[in-house]
Specification:
globular, six-stranded parallel beta sheet, Quinone Oxidoreductase, Chain A, domain 1, about 30% strand, seven-stranded mixed beta sheet
Length: about 325
C-alpha cells in the first residue's frame, strides 16, 4: 500500500509498504480522507520521537467488524480497557496506550489503518467525508467545556487563528457570549468575523489582563507567555498547543496571580459528530488545499505555509 512514513531520514512516500495486520480487537479501515494537523508537522520536527506512518485525523470505511462497509472515524488513543486508569474512566490516559500516528501505532496517511473496534464511530449519512475528517480536532475543541465550568458571562480569548483555534472559538461561542479570537492573519480571522465571532490582530490587542479564560491554539512556544499577559488573576489558561523542543518560562507570575493551567487534549467524538450533523459548527471553509495521497509530500509542504488552514489528503473514493 501507499503510506507517508516518518523515519530516521525524515518523511517520505512509500508505495510498497505492507498493509497493517490488525491486532486482537482491531479492525482494518480503508482510509478515504485524512487531514494534516499541526501535530503531524511537530512530529516531523522531532516531537515525541515518533517513527512510522503519520496521520491521525481520518474518515474511512471499516473492512470488517460490526461496522463493516460503513464510514467511520476513530479516536486516536488505543487503550487496554483493563488497567486501573481505564477502569476509572480515564482511557485516554491509559499508561499502556498507543496513539494512532503519534506514538507506537501507525497512522492514517496510508491506504489502510488498523484501529481498535471500540475506538470507531459511525459517520452519520448526512455528514460528507470532507466534514467527517474534522471529527478528531472538533472533538478536541469540545473537550474544553467538559474540563471547565464555563458560564455565559465568562470572557474568553482564543489565541491562534488556525484550524484548531477556529474550531475552539466556534465551540466556545456556543457556551460564552464574549469570545475573542486573536491572530496574525486577517484572511483567517475573516472566516470567524463571518460567523459573528469577534476577532483582533495580535499587534492591535490591548494587554488589559481581563480574560477569565485564555485558550492557547497558537502552535508556538510564544503562546503561553502571551496567554499569561492576557488572563486575569485567578483566571485559567487552557493549553492546546504541542511544540517540539524545550520551552522556558518565568513561573513566578503564575504563582503570584494564582493562575490555573489546564492541559487539554482529546475529546468527545459523539458530540463532534452531532455538531457536524446539525451544522452548528462550520468546517468546510477551513479547507484550504487538497492532494492525492500520491502527492502527500506536497500536502505536508502546503500545510506549513502561512496561509494554510486545513489541508486534506484524498486517499480513496467513499
Amino acid at each position: 500500500m501507499r503510506a507517508l512514513v516518518l523515519g530516521g531520514d525524515g518523511v517520505g512516500l512509500q508505495t510498497t509498504r505492507p498493509a497493517p495486520t490488525p491486532a486482537e480487537g482491531e479492525v482494518l479501515v480503508r482510509v478515504v480522507r485524512a487531514g494534516v494537523c499541526d501535530t503531524d508537522l511537530q512530529l516531523i520536527g522531532g516531537y515525541m520521537g515518533f517513527s512510522g506512518v503519520l496521520g491521525h485525523e481520518f474518515v474511512g470505511v471499516a473492512e470488517e467488524g460490526p461496522f463493516a462497509t460503513q464510514r467511520v472515524v476513530g479516536e486516536i488513543n488505543c487503550n487496554c480497557q483493563h488497567c486501573w486508569t481505564c477502569l476509572a474512566g480515564r482511557p485516554t490516559h491509559c499508561p499502556h496506550r498507543t496513539t494512532i500516528g503519534i506514538a507506537g501505532h501507525d497512522g492514517a496517511f496510508a491506504d489502510y489503518v488498523a484501529v481498535p473496534q471500540h475506538n470507531l464511530h459511525v459517520v452519520p449519512d448526512a455528514v460528507p467525508s470532507d466534514m467527517a475528517v474534522f471529527a478528531e480536532p472538533l472533538a478536541a475543541a469540545y473537550q474544553i467545556p467538559l474540563q471547565l465550568s464555563l458560564t455565559r458571562t465568562d470572557r474568553v480569548v482564543v489565541l491562534g487563528d488556525g484550524r484548531l483555534g477556529n474550531l475552539c472559538a466556534q465551540v466556545l461561542a456556543g457556551v460564552c457570549d464574549a469570545v475573542l479570537v486573536v491572530g496574525k492573519h486577517p484572511e483567517k480571522l475573516a472566516l470567524l468575523d463571518a460567523l459573528g465571532i469577534r476577532t483582533a490582530l495580535l499587534a492591535d490587542l490591548p494587554r488589559d489582563r481581563m480574560a477569565d479564560v485564555v485558550v492557547d491554539c497558537t502552535g508556538s512556544a510564544t503562546g503561553l507567555p502571551t496567554a499569561l499577559g492576557l488572563v486575569r488573576p485567578r483566571g485559567t489558561v487552557v493549553l492546546k498547543t504541542t511544540v517540539s523542543g524545550t520551552q522556558q518560562l518565568p513561573w513566578a507570575s503564575i504563582v503570584i496571580d494564582e493562575v490555573t493551567i489546564v492541559g487539554s487534549r482529546c475529546g468527545p467524538f459523539d458530540r463532534a459528530l452531532a455538531a457536524l450533523e446539525d451544522r452548528s459548527v462550520s468546517v468546510l471553509p477551513l479547507i484550504s488545499a487538497r492532494f492525492d495521497l500520491s502527492d502527500g509530500m506536497r500536502a505536508l509542504d502546503a500545510a506549513k505555509q502561512r496561509d494554510a488552514l486545513k489541508v486534506l489528503i484524498d486517499v480513496a473514493l467513499d
